[in-house]
Amino acid sequence: xxxGIGALAPGGRTGMRRKLELGDFTLTPRVLVITAWALLxxxxxxxxxxxxxxxxxxxxxxxxxxxLATDLVAPGAHHPWWLVLFAPTVGGxxxxxxxxxxxxxxxxxxxxxxxEAILTQGSVVAPKVxxxxxxSAAISxxxxxxxxxxxxxxxxxxxxxxILAQGxxxxxxxxxxLMVAGAAAGMAATFxxxxxxxxxxxxxxxxxxxxxxxxxVVAAVAVAIYGRGLLLGTAPIFPVTVPADLHYPISVNALAxxxxxxxxxxxxxxxxxxxxxxxxxxxxPVHWMWWPAIGGxxxxAGGLIEPRALGVGYDVIxxxxxxxxxxxxxxxxxxxxxxxxxxxxxxxxxxxxxxPIFMIGGALGALEGLFFPHxxxxxxxxxxxxAxxxxxxxxxxxxxxxxxxxxxxxSAILPLLIAATAAHALSSLVLKRSVLTEKIARRGLHLTxxxxxxxxxxxxxxxxxxxxDPGRPAPAPGDSLVVDDGATTRHVAYLLAEDxxxxxxxxxxxxxxxxxxxxxxxxSDLLKxxxxxxxxxxxxxxxxxxxxxxxx
Length: 552
Fold this sequence. Notes:
There is one protein chain. With 552 residues, the protein is mainly alpha-helical. The protein has three domains: 29-231, Orthogonal Bundle (Clc chloride channel), CATH 1.10.3080.10; 250-442, Clc chloride channel (Orthogonal Bundle), CATH 1.10.3080; 452-538, CBS domain Like. Helix content is 59%, strand content 4%. α19 (489-499) links the parallel β2 and β3 (503-509). The longest helix is centred in the first third of the chain and has 36 residues, at 30-65. Mean pLDDT is 85; it is low at 1-17.
């Protein structure tokens, strides 16, 4: 037996299963096949983003301007009151009907639904979701819904990747790679933000940091960015001009902590509002099909107070990030947008969360900029944007990179990182879950965002096995599950799980190829690695003994 390879004995509980190899959990040439298909998924994601943005523009122009056009425009402030009030209501009603008689998966803002498909459905998404999700999102946003296109494009792009994988002989992990590749491709093409899209995939969707999934995602994003350049151009979405020799003094970075804490508080409030609203809708004595229409009525009422809070709001975000927003706009967005977004999102309508968070965070930062020292127009709005994304999404790196890729102000990375991390810390301390993971938890699933090295990967079988008693004969290798003493305990755990046995024989292979039994290993022995990890986290000792100054 070659070193490190586990074998299933003849007659063992193998059925039709193949033999588990150590290489099953490392990068293999198979990733090249997945990456090749990911290139196609990336192109499809870019096309889906283009279609979705044009659909949003089409519905907005038809509803609010009664014209046939596809340019992204704001609903505007000079429409009849009844149109502002009831357009979102009718849009919500249409979405409710589509969800009830089409697919309930179109409800929500996209990312929790994608996460659920990955966690519980083997990354299988029904083909009709790829059609109905962008249409429902276009209706929701185009009729005034205060949402973004990114959540729907994540679900749509992910559905396209999943559909392709379903037609091929792929494992669930391989389908996940293509599904997330499609989601990230759509996101990258929507915002012209390749690195942020990849980080979002890692922080929110993949649940791993492995070459086997990372490489296909990057390949898809690269193709999507190239496709976006052909379809929508390559300019930043919200370009900000700053001096070439700009310097950020320590006082600015210190105030970035303050901005991050305030952004974290706003993230906590917004998240709390979303789920209190969801709880309230669940108590209504009407079918959930009617909830989006009721949420639409809330949106319309907010639009009567601040019409610029309606729609995707890219024009408002641009004003905030370039320092051109008035006090009335800042306060109106901060109050009205936060309320109508939070309350209507709880109704289960269709629409994304990132663009509204961009706007709300930008408004908060712009308000802080009235009191903080001037750096350049829009700087504090950028800080607020990164902070609120870090707090609401619990994805601080994604928030930072999104901000710099949207504006191309790469020199601001440090204060943005400080603010996003401060917001993330406060949100994590106050709330058990984010706006995404709370919805997953309410569906009976457990989800963690803490990535760490598996302690079973750091121990070998020889370190936890029970040595053979010299006075007793060793079990015959042909009658036992056999593992090499150089196998990791993680690999042993997989072998035990696959074979259905509670123990295995550990052998050492000599230089001459001879196999020597050296011990046995059981499932309980594997807990020694877990106990070591637990002790490292919780056992506190003073390394330098008092008065000695030397290591023990």
